[in-house]
User: Which sequence fits this backbone?
């Protein structure tokens, strides 16, 4: 029974945290052959069935979802479902197991380590007759302590140009992130309080008040 | 997608086993420390700060709303 962490083990908490927080920023494009090997292992160990023959590799999670709708006969406007095999996005769990395994020398079941190989993927939809994957994101921009942020372009971009725009961790419309010269009157288009705050932060409160009074 | 619930149970079972094993071998205070300083922080920085934004953007576009709406 481990009753207290040593000083060195305590210092490693932050190392493992940072290692797994960085993971989604360092993803590589899918190698179909390797993906089949890894997913075969995951399907067998975790889902207790074999990997379907058909594999669809889409360029973004949105494209993957659209493929799922097509294959499952769902309406294109069906409410989006985030898959439970969400690859690298479950990094919190992998970090946890990794720390216990590597630093505290705890051993887990083979299925656990098979599951951790999902960290090399973005979302994965395991359908009955096919598996649908998304390529990882191409670009991601963050700001310390706040999350997604990019003034002048998308904060997240996938290969098919599915993008997320965000300022200081707040998801914003494309025009607010990308327009160099904002028109003050566009303030009225925004209903979300956090997005309004980012608009004001970007345009400057003095200019906004001046323009709205003229 | 019909077996979604079953597979989710299987996935959850993997993590439940991990938790159970850890609690058998590691003092509760250490478990809490690792959970707070590793799991919770990675979860917050990856899930809350990134995944949720991606998810909401997909929800907007999948539902056919203007892609830039928030």
Assistant:
């Amino acid at each position: 029974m481990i009753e207290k962490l040593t000083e060195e083990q305590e210092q490693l908490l932050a190392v493992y945290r940072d290692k797994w927080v960085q993971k989604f920023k360092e993803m590589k494009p899918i190698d179909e052959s390797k993906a089949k090997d890894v997913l075969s292992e995951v399907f067998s160990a975790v889902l207790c069935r074999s990997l379907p023959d058909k594999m669809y590799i889409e360029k973004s999670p949105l494209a993957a979802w659209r493929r799922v709708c097509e294959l499952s006969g769902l309406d294109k406007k069906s409410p989006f479902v985030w898959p439970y095999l969400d690859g690298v996005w479950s990094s919190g769990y992998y970090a946890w197991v990794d720390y216990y395994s590597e630093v505290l020398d705890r051993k887990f079941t083979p299925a656990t380590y098979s599951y951790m190989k999902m960290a090399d993927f973005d979302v994965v939809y395991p359908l009955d007759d096919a598996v649908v994957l998304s390529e990882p994101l191409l670009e991601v921009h963050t700001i310390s302590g706040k999350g997604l942020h990019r003034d002048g372009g998308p904060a997240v971009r996938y290969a098919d140009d599915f993008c997320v725009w965000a300022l200081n961790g707040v998801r914003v419309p494309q025009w607010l992130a990308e327009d160099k010269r904002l028109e003050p009157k566009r303030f009225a288009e925004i209903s979300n309080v956090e997005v309004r705050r980012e608009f004001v932060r970007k345009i400057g409160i003095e200019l906004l008040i001046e323009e709205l009074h003229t | 997608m019909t077996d979604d619930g079953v597979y989710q149970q299987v996935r959850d079972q993997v993590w439940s086993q991990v938790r159970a094993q850890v609690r058998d071998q590691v003092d509760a205070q250490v478990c809490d420390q690792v959970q707070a300083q590793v799991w919770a922080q990675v979860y917050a920085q990856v899930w809350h700060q990134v995944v949720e934004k991606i998810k909401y953007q997909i929800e907007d576009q999948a539902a056919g709303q203007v892609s830039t709406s928030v």
